[in-house]
Write a structure and sequence with these properties.
Length: 251
């Protein structure tokens, strides 16, 4: 059986684990079941910018998983890969393209178009390693999500004024439930303001917070009238200096 486990917690801290239950095969899956090890064994899983999961099995089968209803829809098999190329690792690049690797091949890595499931070889002038699992902070279909949200591209979004702060983490991202949280770890005690800012620099929401503990979580409620899209969450001090700023995607 395959099931979804949800981790609702800031990184590197004690997670709250929720068992959402077993995956359910889509009505059109036919003989290809997400529970069948012949088609669905091994592989890797990635998330897309629309809040879905994709399971890419070692046998080159692709399933799109709706987290809310746990339905795993079989999308097909990846084409354009060598016959003996097992797809053991999968990850998204900054533009949302999917990259796959193999545990039994050192010939090449491939990009996979999630719409057509066609694989394209990635030219390499250096060593290619056999790899089983891949991970990073990027989402598949990011460019499509940006365009749907009205942003020009992922590259344009990355040009916004991001301010790094290792003491602050924003989650969840993308935002789907009407609120966003900021996790503070060793942030200097004091009075601050949280801001939600659009990409034009307009402050849409602002609230005052007091940091009094070494570890603290603050929640910002998001008005339902806000359009889906990319925004900035900022932490500013009393002089309006930005101590932290990062983009979020509201879905």
């Amino acid at each position: 059986m395959m099931e979804i486990i949800c981790y609702n917690s800031p990184p590197a801290k004690k997670p709250l684990i929720t068992d959402l239950g077993n995956l359910v095969d889509g009505e059109k899956n036919g003989a290809v079941s997400v529970h069948n090890k012949c088609s669905s064994w091994g592989g890797d899983m990635i998330g897309d910018a629309f809040g879905n999961l994709y399971l890419i099995s070692a046998r080159q089968a692709v399933f799109a998983i709706n987290v809310k209803n746990r339905i795993a829809e079989f999308k097909g098999y990846i084409t354009g890969l060598p016959a003996n190329y097992t797809t053991n690792g999968a990850v998204a690049d900054p533009d949302g393209n999917v990259i796959v690797s193999s545990a039994n091949s050192v010939n090449a890595y491939y990009t996979v178009d999630l719409k057509t499931l066609k694989a394209t070889l990635i030219p390499s002038n250096g060593q290619v390693y056999n790899t089983s699992d891949l991970a990073n902070g990027f989402f598949a279909l990011q460019k499509e999500a940006d365009q749907k949200a009205g942003a020009v591209s992922a590259a344009d979004v990355n040009r916004t004024d991001v301010v790094r702060n290792s003491n602050v983490t924003v989650y969840p991202n993308p935002v789907t439930e009407g609120s966003v949280r900021l996790y503070f770890n060793n942030q200097q005690a004091g009075r601050y303001r949280l801001q939600l800012v659009d990409l034009a620099g307009r402050v849409l929401n602002e609230q005052t917070i007091n940091i009094v503990n070494r570890v603290q979580v603050e929640e910002m409620l998001l008005d339902q009238k806000f359009a889906k899209g990319v925004y900035m969450v900022k932490l500013v001090d009393g002089k309006r200096k930005a101590l932290f700023a990062n983009k979020i995607l509201i879905q």
